[in-house]
Amino acid sequence: MKQLFLICVLVCLIFSLKTHAQKFERWEPEMKAFEEADKSNPPKKGSIVFTGSSSIRLWENLNEYFSGKNIINRGFGGSQTFEVTHFADRIITPYKPKQVIIYVGDNDLASGKSAEQVVNDFKDLFTKIRQGTPKAKVTFISIKPSPSRMKFAPQIKAANEQIGAFLASEKNTSFIDVYTPMMLSNGKPNPILFRADSLHMTKPGYDIWAKVVKPYLK
What CATH number should be reported for the domain holding residue 116? Predict the structure, then answer.
């Protein structure tokens, strides 16, 4: 029985590793595109790196919103926190950024992960960033209240609260609350801030983010 148990554990571990490898492999075209862009137009060291899922990837005019800042957008849509952690050595560390601004957790919760898992995965990402760029300020943009994902509202609020508390206990960090300004007085997300899919943001949504984020930029 003990041998059978060990075999089952080993099979599950191999399956998990294979699944993760497949997830990472699907991002290779985007990672290589980032690296090719860096070769043709090398970014300045000491820039501000924005990374995370589609809310960052689709914020294509970051430099217009934050003129005078050296911004590098390294968001890749659909990504989860563990994937950003995996690719941190390619999309964060090489730039030696003075600040890393992160938006993650949204897709994690939608995939079925608990708030606690999101927090633990974020802590892993935080550790990876600290190891690669110990002087960089780490800033987390709270998980937004997308209308299509409001069934996860309790988990969103819990993850935001716990990540905020964690960052408050660490040096050279900041937590940006975008959840509150995106809500109406009736307790529902403002629909004009979202596209027809009720998930991705419109220009008014990004306008709110820019207003809230700007004071936190180094």
Answer: 3.40.50.1110
Residue 102, beta-bridge partner list: 51, 140
Lookup result for tokens 């900041």: 174
pLDDT along the chain (218 residues), means of 10: 47 41 83 95 92 96 94 95 97 97 97 98 98 97 97 98 98 98 97 97 98 96
User: Could you please report the per-residue DSSP string of 30-63?
Assistant: HHHHHHHHHHHSPPPTT-EEEEESHHHHT-TTHH
Q: What's the pLDDT at 20?
A: 52
Beta bridge partners of 72: 49
Instruction: Give dist(CA 170, CA 127) in Å, integer.
Output: 11
**In the chain, how many H helices and how many E strands?**
10, 5
**For the chain, how many structural domains are there in total?**
1
